[in-house]
From TrEMBL:
It is found in: Membrane. GO terms for cellular component: membrane. This is Tetraspanin. The keyword Membrane applies. It is a multi-pass membrane protein. SUPFAM superfamilies: Tetraspanin. It comes from the Eukaryota. Disulfide bonds join 131-148. InterPro entries: Tetraspanin/Peripherin (IPR018499), Tetraspanin_animals (IPR000301), Tetraspanin_EC2_sf (IPR008952). PANTHER family: TETRASPANIN (PTHR19282).
Length: 229
């Protein structure tokens, strides 16, 4: 969880997307998710420390607190991980991703006259190897035109053009490597993140399951030790 939160907060691709196309509300929502994950990860670390101290000092109170806290976290984490895997793609498409894509459409429509919009769109298109909102066709009716190569004029930004070793391909090669719109690219990127977070959560939950079992065994051994004394 801690790593997942840091991944959201510190990943440069995520930060570029948020700073470029996300609305203030969507940035806040994702920021809250990251902070919650980091806080939960720190809490799990603290609980593990309590369990370690309880085992060393043979404190029944600390061991019981460790076991119950770990059990609650385990159940909560399994629920969150399953929700992320099952419903994550749907909610991303309907919620956070829609907010980003709406803003992206505004930026694409403002491409050309507004240098700020142009710079943001160029960054997104180069990062995701995509072109336009739904595809290169978004630029066909725009008066502002740029060039993909020195031979032919294209009605799309040069950031849409395919590069090989930093050299632009010609237009025939460009259309043979048809780019999808950035909406689809960002949707897929967000869904992959949800799957990764869910899978990592389930993996950690399995580890915690073994920890819960070990906590039960430690408590049982501690009770037996008290009885024999």
């Amino acid at each position: 969880m801690f790593v997942g939160g840091l991944l959201i907060q510190l990943n440069p691709t995520v930060k570029n997307i948020l700073s470029s196309v996300a609305t203030t509300a969507s940035q806040t929502q994702l920021g809250i998710v990251a902070v919650v994950l980091i806080a939960l990860g720190a809490f799990v670390t603290f609980i593990a420390f309590v369990g370690c101290c309880g085992a060393v000092s043979e404190s029944r109170c600390m061991l019981t607190m460790y076991f119950l806290s770990l059990l609650i976290l385990l159940l909560a984490q399994i629920g969150i991980a399953v929700a992320a895997l099952v419903y994550g793609s749907q909610y991303c498409t309907q919620g956070f991703t829609n907010a980003i894509n709406t803003q992206l459409g505004i930026l694409v429509r403002g491409y050309g006259p507004d240098p700020t919009s142009a710079a943001i769109v160029d960054t997104i298109q180069q990062t995701f190897s995509c072109c336009g909102y739904t595809g290169p066709e978004d630029y066909k009716k725009k008066k502002y035109q740029r060039f993909c190569d020195v031979l032919q004029k294209g009605t799309w930004p040069d950031s849409c053009c395919v590069r090989v070793n930093d050299v632009y391909k010609n237009l025939t090669q460009f259309f043979n490597n048809a780019y999808e719109g950035c909406t689809a690219s960002i949707d897929e990127f967000t869904k992959q993140y949800m799957i990764i977070i869910g899978a990592v959560g389930l993996g950690i939950a399995l580890i915690e399951l073994f920890e819960v079992r070990r906590g039960i065994l430690i408590l049982q051994q501690f009770k037996k030790k008290i009885i024999f004394k």
